[in-house]
From TrEMBL:
This is Two-component response regulator ARR17-like. Residues 6-109 form the Response regulatory domain. The modification 4-aspartylphosphate is found at residue 69. The gene is LOC130510562. One of its GO terms (biological process) is cytokinin-activated signaling pathway. It comes from Raphanus sativus. Keywords: Nucleus, Phosphoprotein, Transcription, Transcription regulation, Two-component regulatory system. InterPro entries: ARR-like, CheY-like_superfamily, Sig_transdc_resp-reg_receiver. SUPFAM superfamilies: CheY-like (SSF52172). GO terms for cellular component: nucleus. It is found in: Nucleus.
């Protein structure tokens, strides 16, 4: 059986999270949602820096894409991106950062 394309959608806004989830499910994706960066890291097994590298690949959730809002309380989408890219298990996973704010310096970063 073919494995579903799995997307982790991270957004503090419930309506935006549900919208992304619905669009992706219409496209036959498996979708997991998280309301903030810390929850996303917990889901990925990266919540505690001590355990980050000790996880075996088999115990790590398979995620093909992460879509995250930029502006969230506690941790920005960019901070989430940096942690994900520092992880040996997830550094190859594409991360898309969304923002409704038109801030050129943020877009360039």
């Amino acid at each position: 059986m073919e494995e579903e394309f799995h997307v982790l959608a991270v957004d503090d806004n419930l309506i935006d999270r549900k919208l992304v989830e619905r669009i992706l499910k219409i496209s036959s994706c498996k979708v997991t949602t998280a309301e903030n960066g810390l929850r996303a890291l917990e889901y990925l097994g990266l919540g505690n820096s001590q355990q980050t590298e000790s996880l075996t690949t088999n115990s790590v959730m398979k995620v093909n894409l992460i879509i995250t809002d930029y502006c969230m309380p506690g941790m920005t989408g960019f901070e989430l991106l940096k942690i994900v890219k520092e992880s040996s298990n997830f550094k190859e996973v594409p991360v898309v950062i969304l923002s409704s704010e038109n801030i050129p310096t943020r877009i360039n970063k």
